[in-house]
Amino acid sequence: xxxxxxxxxxxxxxxxxxxxxxxxxxxxxxxxxxxxxxxxxxxxxxxxxxxxxxxxxxxxxxxxxxxxxxxxxxxxxxxxxxxxxxxxxxxxxxxxxxxxxxxxxxxxxxxxxxxxxxxxxxxxxxxxxxxxxxxxxxxxxxxxxxxxxxxxxxxxxxxxxxxxxxxxxxxxxxxxxxxxxxxxxxxxxxxxxxxxxxxxxxxxxxxxxxxxxxxxxxx
Length: 219
What we know:
This protein is of the alpha/beta class.
């Protein structure tokens, strides 16, 4: 499962992973970061998420990275925003006021790109990646973030014997394995949500949990 898979999902409008409303866990738990207004929040693999608009409304600057030009252009169009456009060597840059979305490959980001980032919001990136890529994703993320950066991370957890992703199951133990040597980890909530997602039940999933973490990178 590579770049072409996700580009095709956007082209075919097979975007069941997209949430049309702001994620409730973001609204509930963001205050626990105690982040100064005006700080920059990084949203990896952001799609056209309405969570970007929510963060903007809370007076934060938002930096997103997204592979699909369809998702990027849809975000600005659906939110009635007209961005400036710059074609750079590694990314196409779409920017308006306090929102900037880079259209390109996450793995082409470097530390300089994220130098102003104080926090990361990840609802749909880690769980979108198979295990073989998750390890590389987290290693690269840790390389380009500054010490002390906070990450609000949301994962889902279920038996992958019952269903193959995406979204992929990312357990509490795996998060601890991926991030534990580099950050403090606080499990803010672990919720049984199978009744809220009948499509998972229809695909054979008997138990489904959502885990909300607050990670703080070591200084």
